[in-house]
């Protein structure tokens, strides 16, 4: 067990009150707003997430509005944030709250955990901020602050580490102001006890931070090395008809970008040239019902799109056809579809003059 430092919580809360950022979800106890902000901020920085929060609140002021929206509308509004399963879970949970709970969010940690896309961290955040329940949050910022202050070397991406830090955070939480404490420790980690070059000499905890005293700040928190990055090779077929139509397909099944739209895709085991591409069985099947005029490569140098555990080496092939196909849509309609940011960037550049 770690010896709990006296006044840790009070000192942290005092720092927070003086230094916190003014953010819209900090001005309310509305569980819908707090839940929405927490889902958006999973794997997303505040600066990037804030405009999305404001867009969602404008489009769906109440959870009922979100529940009644079409999934493709929600995905379109989410476009650019990545990790699209969050958006699908967001929509599913809104429906669950409205259909099974009369539009009222659960007011406790245990029941909040039953919501789709809500894990320990999100349930703790909502329970503490919206309902004043003493449930400690543990995210990347909290791991960093606690591992340094107490000089804990247990890897944070292990079951033992997660249990140890959760128990410690639960011991430290201010039971009178749990929501404020949780926001304070996350804010301190995000803005002061930062990953690289924190200003330890002027830190409010420099007289009691064990890692600072032992000159070990840069080595904490400890994390076991992740799996190697997987490399994938994507070839998008951008169909262009004489009538200014193109073709989109919806991604189905599990995996990245589920339910989003994209140009017809051929994934290969390595980078291919035009000859190899046209010999590919999938390409020949795709082209059976198309009267192709020309095929050209839009980008000789592949666009490398980096996801958390995979890098996509991507090329766009422009396939010009002589006639319409029943599966095509007007180029002007492409902007209405929810697409991955990789596709959105290409559309913005290539179709700018259409």
From TrEMBL:
GO terms for molecular function: 4 iron, 4 sulfur cluster binding; 8-oxo-7,8-dihydroguanine DNA N-glycosylase activity; adenine/guanine mispair binding; metal ion binding; oxidized purine DNA binding; purine-specific mismatch base pair DNA N-glycosylase activity. SMART domains: ENDO3c (SM00478). PANTHER family: ADENINE DNA GLYCOSYLASE. This is Adenine DNA glycosylase. InterPro entries: A/G_AdeGlyc_MutY, DNA_glycosylase, HhH-GPD_domain, HhH_base_excis_C, HhH_motif, MIG/MutY, MutY_C, NUDIX_hydrolase-like_dom_sf. Keywords: 4Fe-4S, DNA damage, DNA repair, Glycosidase, Hydrolase, Iron, Iron-sulfur, Metal-binding. Its cofactor is [4Fe-4S] cluster. One of its GO terms (biological process) is base-excision repair. Binds 1 [4Fe-4S] cluster. Residues 40-191 form the HhH-GPD domain. The keyword Repeat does not apply. Belongs to the Nth/MutY family. Adenine glycosylase active on G-A mispairs. MutY also corrects error-prone DNA synthesis past GO lesions which are due to the oxidatively damaged form of guanine: 7,8-dihydro-8-oxoguanine (8-oxo-dGTP). It is an enzyme of class 3 (hydrolase). Pfam families: HHH (PF00633), HhH-GPD (PF00730), NUDIX_4 (PF14815). It comes from Aequorivita flava. It catalyses: Hydrolyzes free adenine bases from 7,8-dihydro-8-oxoguanine:adenine mismatched double-stranded DNA, leaving an apurinic site. Its EC number is 3.2.2.31.
